[in-house]
Amino acid sequence: MKIIILDDSATVRMILESHLEDLGIGDEEIFSFEDGFAALKFIAENGADIVFSDINMPKMSGYEFAKELFINYPFLRNSTFAISGDEKRESFLRMKNMGVHRFIKKPIKAEHFHHFIQPEILKRRAIEASLN
After folding, report:
1. Fewer Cβ atoms within 10 Å of its own Cβ: the N or the C terminal residue of the chain?
2. What range defines the domain where residue 60 resides?
């Protein structure tokens, strides 16, 4: 499994990595990036199964990232989560209109994260098992 974390904050990336590790995801399955260009390059070369993307970032916004991601990898719409500390409804609506339907608010609480992410991880693990 390849899980992409895209956030310009090293602290947020570390928190997400820790929550994923709590769910049994190994370090070798987690790939963290601070800008969308690097994340898109990695996905083009290696693929991705689950994507977490911050909405507000300096080099490439989450909107721009999602647009490029879904043009090239439309199947990732169902396994992409937008992350934001921005409480503005417009931010979430804009991401939803782009095809992102799963959202995680900052600060990220472990129980909330686990509740939403664990089913996706279990689904991905089942797919992997059926292919092997």
Report:
1. C
2. 3-131
The answer to whether 5 and 17 have CB atoms below 8 angstroms apart is: yes
Cα within 13 Å of Cα(37), Cβ side:
3
DSSP secondary-structure letter at 123? H
pLDDT, averaged in runs of 10, over the chain (132 residues): 96 96 93 96 97 92 94 92 82 84 88 89 88 80
As a whole number of Å, the CA-based R_g of the chain is 14
The CATH number covering residue 7 comes to: 3.40.50.2300
pTM above 0.70, yes or no: yes
Decide the pairing of beta strands 30-33 and 80-84.
Answer: unpaired
Q: How many domains does the chain have?
A: 1
